[in-house]
Amino acid sequence: MLKDNIFQKIIDKQIPAKIAYEDEWCVAFHDINAQAPVHVLIVPRKAIATHADLTDVDRDLVGHMHLIAVKLAKDLHLDDGYRVVVNCLDRGGQTVPHLHMHLLGGRDFHWPPG
Ligand code: AMP
How much distance in Å is there from the Cα of 27 to the middle of ligand 1? Predict the structure, then answer.
């Protein structure tokens, strides 16, 4: 079921998370298994399973998520740069079936990614 995932439970405040930011569109919280000194997940309240499910109606939401990433990067002092990642489905490495954006910072990142 689309809403039966851990991020939906965090959005619904059924399980705790270290919330970094929230508004009517999205909730951002610190990743439980951080891959960098700063690792925040920006999660829409709307139940969208994955990036490939986005449609035209989500245009404002996607823009908003990016602007929240910019705001958090400023708030968390990622002045030298950061990385924004969205993993999509199995081959993209997605493990939680609710759309989310990773904001990673506080160390150097390399290319290509693994
Ligand atoms: P992805 O692999 O792109 O689906 O990312 C899922 C992310 O969610 C991983 O980085 C996990 O460490 C993170 N995660 C899983 N459960 C929790 C949780 N309860 N609180 C915070 N982050 C979580």
Answer: 13
Q: Is the CB of 94 under 6 A from ligand 1?
A: yes
CA-to-CA distance for 67 and 41, rounded, in angstroms? 13
pTM over 0.85: yes
Q: Is 14 in the pocket of ligand 1 (CB under 6 A)?
A: no
In this prediction, residue 22 has a pLDDT band, given cuts at 50, 70 and 90, of very high
Atom of ligand 1 nearest to the CA of 35: 10
- Torsions phi, psi of 39, nearest 5? -145, 100
Q: Round to whole Å and give the CA distance between 94 and 88.
A: 5
> Which domains are delineated in the chain?
2-105 (3.30.428.10)
- Whole-number pLDDT of residue 1: 62
* Residue 52 CB-half CA count within 13 A: 8
